[in-house]
Amino acid sequence: MKKSNTPIIEHIPRFLEYLDIEKGVSNKTQETYTRFLQSFINWLEQNKLSGLKPHEITDNHIWKYRVFLSKKTTPKKEPIKKKTRNYYLIALRALLNYFADRDISSLPAEKVKLTKEDKERVVKFLDLAQIEKLLHAPNTSNKVGLRDRAILETLFSTGLRVSELIDLNRDQIKITRDTDILEVSVVGKGGHPRTVYFSERAIKALGRYLRTRKDNDKALFVRYKGPKTSPRRLTPRSVESIVKKYAKIAGIPVMTTPHTLRHSYATDLLAQGVDLRVIQEFLGHRNIATTQVYTHITSQRLKEIHKKLHSGRKIKE
Q1: Is residue 61 flagged as an active site residue?
Q2: Is it the case that residue 17 has pLDDT exceeding 50?
Q3: Where among 78, 111, 144 does a domain terminate?
Q4: pLDDT band at 313; cut points 50, 70, 90
Q5: Distance from the CA of 276 to the CA of which of 41, 46, 135, 297 falls in 20 to 30 A?
Q6: Which of 65, 262, 263, 265 is catalytic?
């Protein structure tokens, strides 16, 4: 390991280039790292540590930075969540790992301990009865309702992230009279491609919606309100508003989001006995640990079914 006389702050642009060129990290992820590391830069500057070099950083610096994060607030003056604090620390870990990869003497990344979160991740999902109510909520006698029904059907059929949904283009949807399942290639997080599958129901909904489109906009899902100029492609926020609107109409939890439908899709597959590795592929998870969060849900449900229905409980001792 060699000592670098370049201050940590001046290493950060090179670190971001490293993420792009050697790690193949997406532009969006690079922007996220930039934002989180800017907080570390601000802390260094506030504490007159702008010249701190990689080999000079100590456990004490890390502790003081963690205290700084614990006092950080949102625009509404509320403390940032522990989970968010960890994102800042993970970005700092990545920078320290970069130093190690470049044989630059510095504090080991494992010295940056993450904050213990209060609760394990809670996955919110809808059961099939709630899904049915939601899918039937749009008024399909008009083009807006047909579009919204197609959006809801697509989200539940494919498990797409909302960012992946809005990126879809019309030319990707090739429907013929005999189409009973549609395969579409999408690019997910980190620029990783995968194939998603549209059910027969989703295909029919898309077909009815597309027959109303008289414009030349390439986006699959477009807005009908506002200026009649490009771009007309829906935004993530507009899709979230659409889902929330129909959740309210359907009388299901109003906190339902596009991601709730993604969770519902995965939970339904797992409940039907689909292998976890297959679900991982469907969802585009890079790590199986991310997909395993759904096993807790189905295990609890199976436990309840066993307790309620298994005949062993009816046999006399």
Answers
A1: no
A2: yes
A3: 111
A4: very low
A5: 135
A6: 262
Give the active site residue among 208, 223, 259, 301: 259
At CA 295, angle to CA 243 and CA 311, rounded to 5?
110
208 is annotated as an active-site residue: no
Looking at the fold, whether 246 and 133 belong to one and the same domain comes out as: yes
pLDDT of 149 over the 80 cut: yes
Indicate if 77 and 133 belong to the same structural domain: no
pLDDT in tens, 74-116: 887 888 888 888 889 999 999 999 999 999 999 999 999 887 7
Domain limit, last residue, from 208, 241, 258: 258
Question: Is a pLDDT exceeding 70 seen at residue 304?
Answer: no
Active-site option among 189, 204, 245, 301: 189
Q: Give the CA diameter of the chain.
A: 79
Opening angle at CA 288, ends 283 and 294, nearest 5: 70
**Residue 150 tokens, joined:** 């197609």
Cα–Cα dist 144/150, whole Å: 10
Cα 69 from Cα 218, distance rounded (Å)? 44
- Encode pLDDT of 178-215 as tens digits: 777 889 999 888 788 999 999 999 999 999 999 999 98
H or E element at residue 196: strand 193-198
User: Is residue 282 a part of any domain in this protein?
Assistant: no
Name which of 121, 124, 118, 148 is nearest 136 in CA terms.
Answer: 148
Residues 190 and 222 both lie in one domain: yes
> Which pLDDT score is estimated for 131?
95
161 is catalytic: yes
Q: What is the per-residue pLDDT for 147?
A: 97
On whether residue 313 sits in a domain, the answer given is no
* Residue scoring higher pLDDT (301 or 113): 113
Residue in 11, 53, 85, 161 annotated catalytic: 161
Known active-site residue 316: no
Range of the structural domain that residue 252 is part of: 128-258
Question: Domain check: are 67 and 17 in the same one?
Answer: yes
Count how many domains the chain has. Answer: 2
Residues 39 and 141 in one domain: no
- Say if residue 30 is in the same domain as residue 83: yes
262 as an active site residue: the answer is: yes
Catalytic site includes residue 259 = yes
